[in-house]
Amino acid sequence: MNRATRKTVIAGNWKMNMTPSQTTALINEMKTTLPAEPACDVVLCVPFVDIAAAKAAAEGSVIKVGAENVHFEAKGAYTGEISAEMLVECGVEYVIVGHSERRQYFGETDETVNKRLLAGVNAGLTVILCVGEMLDERQKDITAEVVALQTKVALQGVDAEMLKKVIIAYEPVWAIGTGLTATDDQAEEVCALIRDVLAAKYGRDVAETVTIQYGGSMNAGNAQSLLSKTNVDGGLIGGASLKAADFAKIVEASNQD
Ligand code: PEP
């Protein structure tokens, strides 16, 4: 982390877990376990149907509410989709785009990720853009190329002003939900590489202001050392964000200097 130039953000991704009543219960529990004044922004990205319950339960706490996806069109015949305007009216402040599960199971491409990112940013949402290589891409030693390309395409049409509303989450696909975590050095190396991609496009000063998270089996035990890395400015947390005590420990890990 480098708190001098950028925010640390710990965000949970609940995926397809939790009903509205379970959401209320878990957030109420988190309010008792989370530090009252965390050194980072704390976000929970929840299923669409849980947004109202999450907003109500999180009221008056440090928790901000996000969604897990957004459609790129403003309105129309897109059955099952949710627009950025709908999210904003529900009080959502953050949205994830390009999560590897969307890319793997729902045909998301770099181009549609770019369109979703633009829709989110233009509506005033802070977009958490996920990028990351598959295991075979790491084994073929093309992680840098894959992640750079994903980042560049996703940021097409995004100027420096819009970039203020973008967080990038480096999520090696082989580490998501597997219990395998990138080493601190692997996470740092790719987060630094993403920052270099940003520097080439926006200049070094702008690149230094962008929050770049690591995601992939981050947990209460490994968060502190991952977050100690200069270019790791937070975490996108799946499994551990469903446990109040574990999530609180990860947030506390961001209190280090
Ligand atoms: C994720 O869903 O983005 C994620 C990183 O999941 P997990 O922490 O469970 O690996």
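^ phosphoenolpyruvate complex. Residues 184-202 form the longest helix (19 residues). Residues 13, 15, 171, 176-177, 215-218, 236-240 surround phosphoenolpyruvate (CB under 6 Å).
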